[in-house]
Structures are given as structure tokens and as C-alpha cells.
Amino acid sequence: MVERSLDASVPVRRPRFRDAATESPLARAVLIAVAVLFLAAFLLLPLVAVFVEAFRNGTGAFLEAIGEPDALAAIRLTLLVAAISVPLNLVFGITAAWAIAKFEFKGKSFLITLIDLPFSISPVISGMVYILLFGSQSVLGPWLRSHGIDILFAVPGIVLATVFVTFPFVARELIPLMQDQGSGDEEAALSLGASGWQTFRFVTLPNIKWGVLYGVLLCNARAMGEFGAVSVVSGHIRGLTNTMPLHVEILYNEYNFVAAFSVAALLALLALVTLVLKTILELRYGAGSASVRH
Question: For residues 130 and 173, what is the distance between their CA atoms, to the nearest angstrom?
Fold first, then answer.
């Protein structure tokens, strides 16, 4: 590019900058090949192996393993825990995101840090926290036991541990979305006489609905597949407090490989369904976000 300086007789040359995103065909092919090989080696092959082992002895053995009473109990408990923890995290996520995105208050940064806490600590440690809070040697333990309230090694403890490890997902999905949207629509609705509930129902919620569904799917996938925190507080009581991941571990340790991989395949199938729904929502959510920005 050539421009004229203040002295019209002296040309000024500006260097041409290469677009950083432009790579040669060979470089693009190498990068794509590395990514595909990595995914095939560490994701696709293990997933295929799970289904191959699950159906090694035929469909009958697979269905028999899934229909076994302890397996059915683990499936029911997994779905129950997800059905309880996901709505709780949905309410918390929307509330926290609304407060953080729409208002300024002291401790806002600290609240955001607390929301990110489950991402930074091991799930096993979160399970140990509930042992310290509700165990027999804790302050609350004797009182709970005297009143016949079972938290640990029962469904309430599993739900609490699952809620803890999954509560950032909805909030973390909605906070940047609501911050990007601002509060102009809500202010306009309030100025026209809408109540707070009407503003939320007819203005805020339609603007964030795809983000809500996306966060719920991520939360549900983690809730069904959680192992570490649940393993600490469940007690591994077969047929009572074992979720699907825990049941898979027990079967594998007993060298019942077909049954273990059968339950694992069912859990993987649920994850794949979640992944498909997540992809669909990403397409819809991305289109919705683009329309909001424009």
C-alpha cells in the first residue's frame, strides 16, 4: 500500500500484514488431522468399545443386565436425583444471573467466585464436606439421628452432593447472556406499568430461554454422570443408594463385565441424547443471540 506523505513527492509505504487466521492448505489439513485423530483416540474409540462390550453376548444379555433389579434401582435413583437437582439449580441459576447481571451490589465479585467454586475443587472434597456436616461425629449428626433424619447414605445426601457440583452450569450460562442484553427491555416494561413478575415472564424469560435450556442440559448431563461426590455420601448400598455410575463400578469390580458395560452403555446413550439436544440448542441459541445483538 502506497500513500503520500505531507511532502507529495515522497511516497510512504505501509507494510502489508498477513491475516493471522489464514493458513496454508497443508497447515489446515495437518491441524484438522491432528484434531480428528485426537478425538478418535480419546473419545470415539472408548465410546465404541463400551457399546461393543455391552453387546458382546448379544442383545439378550444386554437387556438382562439392564433389567436386573439392582440396575433398575440405580437407573431410578439416577433419574430421581437429576429430577430434583436440575430444577433446584434452574431456580438458583436464573436468580443468581438476574441479580448479577441486572444489579450492582457489594459482594458481587465474591458471589461470582462462589458460583465458580465447584469448578475449582475436587468433587470428592465436596462429598467430604457433607460428611463433616452431617456425619455421626459432627455437630448436626447426633441431632439428626435422634430425630430419625437420614442425610448421609440416603437420597438427601446424594441430592445435596449433586446439587453442589452442578449448580454453576445454569448460572454460568445465563450471566454473560443477560449482561450482554442489558436491562433496557426490563426498564421499558416497568415504565409501561408492568409488574416485576410480568416483566420477568414476558420480557426477561423469552430473551434467555435458549440459554436456560442449554444450561439445563449441561446440568442434567453432569447430574446423571456424577461419581466422585456421590460416591463419598452414598454408602454404596446396593439397590438403595447406588446411582448408575456407582453401579457400573461395583459390577466391574465383581468382574461382571457384560453387565457393567451394559449399564455404562445406557448411561453413555443418555449422554449422547443430551449431546444431540445440546447441539440443536447451540444452533438455535446462536441464532437467537445473533438476533439479540443486531
Answer: 27
